[in-house]
């Protein structure tokens, strides 16, 4: 069986990212909508956060098991850049993947807009997140770095290295995202993915939703996620690197040296 063509891989990345943004990020305004219908005004504490976290986990399950064998299911520029930084993909492939991911993210945000039409999508937003007002830019940046580092570290261990038990990558990655969102979500919304944040933020702003401050978009959600991903990738590369086995001649020389020392 021949390998998927580049056009097939790029299309798969766009579809996978659209799934992530539509189901994952789209769960944010829908959770607000349902909470408002029950008399609330925002996401209802841990119950709402857990709903959103599960939505992202399920979206990742679906994407990994449906397109992982086609494109590798990066669906995140931070993952793609980390693979480029560790020389696992080339620059041309990385550039194509990132463009496809951004296109897919806008498609996903557009689908969210469609299903919210008639229910004030400008007020609900399309799933963009922002830094907690009490946290500030520095803490937000650190939170995204830490969260994305954990995510990419897990991706490398569960899916990239090829040493983990086969068939479990989607579950492992989906559930680590669930855990990260529970912890980082209250601080930054736990984007962990530049495309997942940029598309809902920019399309949302175009329809009149509350804009995400530009400095947050750039510093926290683009640089923070990307830097965190690269840190996680190199950390896994460091601990996962296997020592090269010594050549037979070198082993024999060591044995003779030890024998003379004992004699």
Summarize the biggest pleated sheet: none
CATH topology: Glycerol uptake facilitator protein
CATH superfamily: Glycerol uptake facilitator protein
What's the overall average pLDDT, rounded? 90
Counting structural domains, the number is 1
In angstroms, what separates the terminal alpha carbons? 60 Å
**Number of contiguous helices:** 11
Topology:
Blueprint: H1 6-25, H2 27-37, H3 45-71, H4 77-85, H5 91-116, H6 121-124, H7 136-160, H8 169-188, H9 194-206, H10 214-240, H11 248-262
Question: Could you characterize the architecture of this molecule?
Answer:
With 263 residues, the chain is mainly α. It has one domain (6-243): Glycerol uptake facilitator protein (Up-down Bundle). Helix content is 75%, strand content 0%. Helix 3 crosses helix 8, helix 4 runs antiparallel to helix 5 (91-116) and helix 9 (194-206) runs antiparallel to helix 10 (214-240). The chain is globular and about 50 Å long. It starts with 5 loop residues before the first helix and ends with a helix.
Entry summary:
The chain is built from eleven helices and no strands. The protein is an all-alpha fold. It has a single domain, classed as Glycerol uptake facilitator protein, CATH 1.20.1080.
Give me some keywords for this one.
single chain; 263 residues; mainly alpha; Glycerol uptake facilitator protein; 11 helices; 75% helix
